[in-house]
Design a protein that fits this description.
The complex is a heterodimer of chains A (171) and B (106).
Chain A lengths: L2 H21 L3 H21 L3 H25 L15 H20 L15 H10 L6 H22 L8
Chain B lengths: L3 H21 L3 H26 L9 H31 L13
Helix pairs in contact in B: 1-2, 2-3
Chain lengths: 171, 106
């Protein structure tokens, strides 16, 4: 099977499940469609020779964030009736705005001649070694990388602080 | 081979679907799901440009990968804090509907 057809199939599955995420009524179904959509994005990463990020996508997004979303849906379950309207009354305004944004970006992108280039040389495995050393090299990305790890630590501690149940009320 | 603009159009479509979800959904958890879709579209874009343009001798080959790592960290932090806020708001106000969280309304 040529790789273009594979790309088109994966892209179609990802986009259709993304549309399901934003339109289905039941929140739990939306969360499961989100998992399928994230998996499609992981396949796209693999197609881009970024196998490292394909695996990271599976571990971080599907393994952690999607599970977190599913837990949040379960914890806040009884609030919204699954049969009630899940979208605003003004959803058609948002649809028009989104279509305008899509048309604008697509027209700009297609008119940019540099986008017609073919792919570069396949990166090979040595790029991962270079990437790992660049992340701890102070001349390169050591400071942004450490700052982002501090951000993540602060976010995790903040999340625990915000979500903790101080009064021992209903859980 | 797959042309670069296929990836760009795919990422644009994914971003716009996520944006639609953010603009229309009432449930705050669903709004966060839309944000996750938008961040994924950004990562697809970054990795596509890295893959197609990194052979350019003026660009350092690992720059795109480092960008994606930081976007991943920001996305995880955002998901953790966002869901914690939603659960906290649910405890206090008994709702996750964005329209009903109007504590700051004058």
């Amino acid at each position: 099977m040529p790789i273009q057809i594979f790309f088109l199939i994966v892209a179609a599955i990802t986009l259709i499940s993304a549309v399901m995420v934003v339109t289905v009524r039941r929140m739990m179904h939306a969360a499961l469609w989100l998992v399928l959509s994230l998996f499609g994005v992981a396949l796209i990463f693999a197609l881009l020779d970024a196998s490292f990020y394909a695996v990271i996508q599976l571990i971080v997004y599907i393994g952690a964030i999607a599970i977190l979303v599913i837990f949040a849906v379960m914890l806040t379950r009884r609030v919204m009736d699954d049969d009630a309207a899940q979208t605003n009354k003004n959803w058609w305004v948002a649809l028009i705005a989104v279509l305008v944004v899509f048309g604008g970006i697509a027209a700009t992108a297609l008119s940019w001649t540099r986008l017609q280039v073919g792919p570069g040389i396949p990166p090979g495995d040595s790029i991962l070694v270079d990437f790992g050393t660049a992340l701890i090299n102070p001349q390169k990305y050591a400071i942004p990388f450490e700052v982002s790890s501090v951000l993540l630590l602060a976010a995790v501690i903040g999340a625990i602080y915000v979500a903790v149940d101080r009064k021992g009320g209903k859980g | 081979m797959i042309p670069l603009y296929w990836y760009v159009l795919f990422a644009t479509a994914l971003f716009c679907i996520g944006l639609f979800g953010v603009l229309t959904r009432k449930n705050s958890v669903a709004i966060l799901m839309g944000i996750e879709l938008m961040l994924n579209a950004v990562n697809v874009n970054l990795l596509a440009f890295w893959r197609y343009l990194y052979a350019d001798p003026t660009v350092e080959p690992t720059r795109g990968l480092a960008f994606v790592a930081i976007v991943f960290v920001a996305a995880s932090a955002e998901a953790a804090v966002g869901l914690a806020l939603i659960i906290s708001a649910y405890r206090r106000r008994d709702t996750v509907v964005a329209e009903e969280l109007d504590l700051l309304k004058g």
